[in-house]
């Protein structure tokens, strides 16, 4: 139904719009120039658009006869070229991914120029394959309701390939365009794939996990929840209040955890694992499993920010731990007659590094849960996503932490001091989180998307595009890439240059 309304409105404007660039006015009147740092918030734009130029009135079909929305997602933020078709009732119709590991492994890391050219070669066939394998029938790509694409953050030239392709498709097909924040997509992936534990299916439920388990009609987890985003470019701990609204609790002051994993794997000469679940970080985890003495180097490896004076500080740091690994490797090579570090010691060092890095993450998540409880924010879930989110050790350790915290009861603001109440009123964490007193109290749940959806993928882009579109968050056709883009700037109307 939404598509029909958009088409009718668009056709009524086509008499005065004769080129694709003029179709921007079909969806949103966006007049801010690219050089402007402060732009009108998208929610306000959508509201103004709907009030100024309304679509023709058409009879609304019964809800049961409305088909789900369909989104095409495009992701090119780093080194994987991805496209996917996803529906608003949480069905993944198709997904296509081309990795570039064979190009970047010999170079020891991602080379932006190589990634850019590979995206240009791969993207047309990737999008074509995603459309053809989605089973859209005779309509084909015309059945798609929105085009969603990663706008940032990421490698500038890689982002540009995907965004230009998405803008061209949207303009040519007269479809809405949704520019997606890459990290918001990681945060919302769990709402596509997670089963609501309280959901009781009635009759036939078409929304199911891959295992056939019904997941419920509404996305889960519900807001607000904690999100730990751990990848090659980011280490973020934040509160997800709603689509388009996040509060950062902690970020790294130097290297990301993904970068630390990658460089440690390179120091230890660990070959990359092939495939979409591969790369240097995954290879280090697999390599560490063979360790016979994982505690060998623990007395020489620091757990970052774990001293009493800094343990409660809400920030991450991995540069010191990474440097400690380099020192140990150099010392071991200097002491060896062959000038090389034997494999058993490399396995032990990999296991020790992983232990310290994961412990550091766990300490900060535990502190965040304590802080949220003290501020009256009833957190039900911790979502772990990003490439490092596939790490099995990280997932199991977080389970141990989160099971100690409960949620579901009323917030005891009557026990707070006046100073604490004022602080709670001021902070952006003050969301409507009061629960009915009769609701059962449960442990905070750790939620991890399927491992294949923890790494960069177009499924999360398409799904986030759907979530944003249903909130009225549509973008004009002249949006540009945003290589550096703090997540808590979403919803403020401010976009970095």
From TrEMBL:
Organism expressing this protein natively: Linnemannia elongata AG-77
Cofactor dependence: a divalent metal cation
Annotated region (Disordered), positions in chain: 45-67
Catalytic reaction(s) noted: L-threonylcarbamoyladenylate + adenosine(37) in tRNA = N(6)-L-threonylcarbamoyladenosine(37) in tRNA + AMP + H(+)
Short name of any one Pfam family annotated for the protein: TsaD
Keywords: Acyltransferase, Hydrolase, Metal-binding, Mitochondrion, Protease, Transferase, tRNA processing
Example of a GO cellular component annotation carried by this entry: mitochondrion
Protein name: N(6)-L-threonylcarbamoyladenine synthase
Record keyword S-adenosyl-L-methionine present: no
Coiled-coil stretches: none
């Amino acid at each position: 139904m939404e598509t029909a309304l958009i088409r009718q409105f668009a056709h009524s404007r086509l008499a005065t719009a004769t080129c694709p660039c003029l179709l921007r006015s079909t969806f949103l009147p966006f007049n801010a120039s690219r050089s402007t740092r402060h732009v009108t918030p998208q929610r306000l734009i959508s509201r103004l658009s709907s009030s100024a130029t309304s679509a023709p009135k058409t009879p609304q079909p019964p809800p049961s006869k409305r088909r789900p929305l369909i989104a095409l997602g495009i992701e090119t933020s780093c080194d994987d070229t991805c496209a996917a078709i996803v529906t608003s009732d949480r069905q993944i119709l198709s997904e296509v991914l081309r990795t570039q590991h064979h190009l970047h492994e010999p170079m020891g890391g991602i080379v932006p120029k190589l990634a850019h050219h590979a995206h240009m070669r791969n993207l047309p066939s990737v999008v074509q394959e995603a459309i053809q394998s989605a089973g859209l029938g005779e309509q084909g790509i015309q059945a798609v309701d929105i085009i969603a694409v990663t706008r940032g953050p990421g490698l500038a030239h890689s982002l540009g390939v995907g965004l230009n392709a998405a803008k061209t498709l949207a303009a040519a097909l007269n479809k809405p365009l949704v520019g997606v924040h890459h990290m918001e997509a990681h945060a919302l992936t769990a709402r596509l794939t997670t089963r609501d534990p309280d959901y009781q299916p009635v009759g036939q439920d078409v929304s199911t996990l891959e295992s056939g388990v019904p997941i419920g009609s509404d996305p889960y987890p519900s807001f607000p929840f904690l999100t730990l985003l751990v990848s090659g470019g980011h280490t973020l701990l934040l509160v997800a209040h709603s689509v388009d609204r996040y509060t950062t609790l902690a970020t790294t002051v130097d290297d990301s955890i993904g970068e630390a994993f990658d460089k440690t794997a390179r120091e230890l000469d660990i070959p990359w694992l092939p495939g979409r679940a591969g790369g240097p970080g995954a290879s280090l985890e697999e390599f560490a499993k063979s360790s016979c003495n994982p505690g060998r180097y623990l007395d020489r490896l620091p757990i970052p920010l774990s001293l009493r004076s800094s343990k409660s500080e809400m920030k991450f740091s991995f540069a010191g731990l990474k440097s400690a690994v380099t020192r140990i490797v150099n010392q071991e090579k200097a002491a060896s007659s062959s000038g090389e570090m034997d494999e058993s010691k490399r396995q032990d060092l990999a296991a020790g590094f992983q232990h310290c890095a994961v412990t550091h993450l766990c300490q900060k998540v535990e502190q965040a849960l304590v802080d949220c409880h003290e501020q009256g924010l009833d957190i039900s879930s911790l979502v772990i996503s990003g490439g490092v989110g596939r790490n099995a050790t990280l997932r199991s350790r977080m389970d141990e932490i989160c099971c100690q915290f409960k949620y579901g009861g009323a917030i005891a603001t009557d026990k707070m001091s006046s100073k604490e109440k004022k602080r709670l009123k001021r902070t952006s964490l003050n969301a409507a989180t009061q629960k009915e007193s009769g609701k059962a109290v449960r442990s905070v749940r750790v939620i991890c998307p399927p491992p294949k959806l923890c790494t960069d993928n177009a499924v999360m882009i398409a799904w986030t595009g759907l979530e944003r579109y249903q909130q009225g968050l549509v973008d004009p056709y002249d949006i540009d890439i945003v290589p550096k883009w703090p997540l808590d700037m979403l919803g403020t109307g401010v976009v970095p240059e």
